[in-house]
Amino acid sequence: MLAHNFRKRDRSPENLMSSLPPTLPILPFTQPVNGSVTLPGSKSITNRALILAALGDKSVLLTGALFSRDTLIMIAALRALGFTVEPDEKALTIRIEGRGGEIPVREARIDIGNAGTAARFLTAFVCLRPDGIYHFDGDEAMRRRPIGALLEALEWQGAKANSRHFPFTLRTAGLPGGSVELDASESSQMLSALLMVAPHALKKLNVELKVNAGSKPFVAMTKRMIAQFTESPTTYQIEGDASAGSYFLSLPLAVGRGKLDVVGYPRSGSLQGDVRFAGIIEQLESHLKHESYLEYVSGGVRVFAGPKARKAGAPQSSFEFREFSDTFLTLAAIAPLLAGPTKISGITHTRKQETDRVAGMARELKKLGQHVIENEDSLEIHPRPLTSGVEIETYHDHRFAMSFGILGCHDLQGNGQPWLTIKDPACCSKTFPHFFDLLASLRTASH
Questions:
Q1: How many angstroms separate the CA atoms of 363 and 181, rounded?
Q2: Per-residue pLDDT for 33 more than 60?
Q3: Backbone conformation region of residue 215, classed left if phi is above 0, alpha if psi is from -120 to 50, else beta
Q4: E-strand spans in 98-217?
């Protein structure tokens, strides 16, 4: 049995982007999946922990940390702001010296690429400095992503921004406290950003929501982590990434046969709302063309798919993804393999993430020959025979690459030959740099 983890050499964000070819044909599995995979750390938790540790007043060691493009961007930004950050990718640890709410460097240039957590968290974070000048920019996709509502809220605290989108220069005035209004409907990260810095305002800072946050589980994650760091930890363990786990929970279903242990997949009580995807896999059992099950085992979960035939023509299955929408693409990508139609709802806010994920998913599934009904908040996917020879556009979005990478593991032609190609596979470096290496290792071990 293959056991695979992610202790790789240290890499810069730029090097992470160059490790894969421009297009990647996916080799299908010709034998049952057989192995074990250890998940990388959660990006959402790693980047929150970096900010919260920097806000503390002592040295904190983060263990099980994720090393990806987004977390390296956060580390580079904190260093540019004068913080001592010591990453060790081999050990999966990051040590950071807290400054008790002080921002050491008065003026800095911060390039946040397309890292949404870094963009929103750092924008609020630097406002703790009473006389700062910070020049923010990102890549082309980030310049289309929402930040204006957060800047407007920070202006209630005296900050001044010369634009409502990237790039912008932010002149800070500290956080005097009091009440601010925020529309967090486009991204819950804006609310999380304010919640993390609020304890360091001169007086109590109250955030009044004009519209509810886009994803409540991520706000709950932030609140729980603030409470954990209030206890002044010297060591903080990062959970395995539940979003990344969704791909491997789906792999045996896509292949149709095999057993896979997903080590590090969080259990109930996790900080991550995306653990709810395991429940989706359990519900899919009656909609598959073969037998399957999921069970919790020591250290993670085990997924099995067997050869027991099922009749086609199952009734439509409907799933609400509002509270764990990062994983909706995983289900959508394997929906063509299900026995009946699939409706996925609660996904409006994903139209303003790395790309318009709803429209993009509909477009790529149609290229694969599927009948797709797209609404503002939902997709209905009606299985049709899959079209081979298709290049999947990823829109610089890691979740498109990984989701369709799992679908490509299905041996559509029965000869082990690639039938689906992923464009820009290196976009996975955002959260999961070694994803395609891992798939290849699992495929080799399953022969």
A1: 37
A2: yes
A3: beta
A4: 107-111, 133-137, 160-161, 168-171, 178-183, 205-211
Looking at residue 180, its amino acid is V
Q: Are 201 and 175 in contact (CB under 8 A)?
A: yes
Nearest to 432 by CA among 37, 148, 146, 95: 37
For 19, 73, 108, 293, 446, the CA distances from 400, given in Å and listed in that order, are 18, 21, 33, 25, 25
Please answer whether residues 215 and 325 qualify as being in contact, where contact means their C-beta atoms are separated by less than 8 angstroms.
yes
Enumerate domains of the chain plus CATH numbers: 2-42+240-445 (3.65.10.10), 43-237 (3.65.10.10)
Structure tokens at 181: 């209004």
Above 80 in pLDDT, residue 72?
yes
What confidence score (pLDDT) does residue 291 get? 75
Q: Are strands 390-392 and 378-382 parallel, antiparallel or unpaired?
A: unpaired
Contact 165, 147 (CB under 8 A): yes
**Interior angle at CA 187, CA 181 and CA 190, nearest 5:** 50
Q: Which two tokens stand for residue 322?
A: 């509002």
Q: Which CA distances in Å does 292 have to 119, 264, 281, 329, 348?
A: 40, 21, 9, 20, 31
Task: Give the residue numbers annotated as catalytic, written as ranges.
Answer: 326
CB atoms under 10 Å from CB of 359, counted, come to 14
Token code pair at residue 338: 């299900």
Q: What is the pLDDT of residues 137-186, one digit of tens each?
A: 999 889 988 899 999 999 999 999 999 999 999 999 999 999 999 998 88
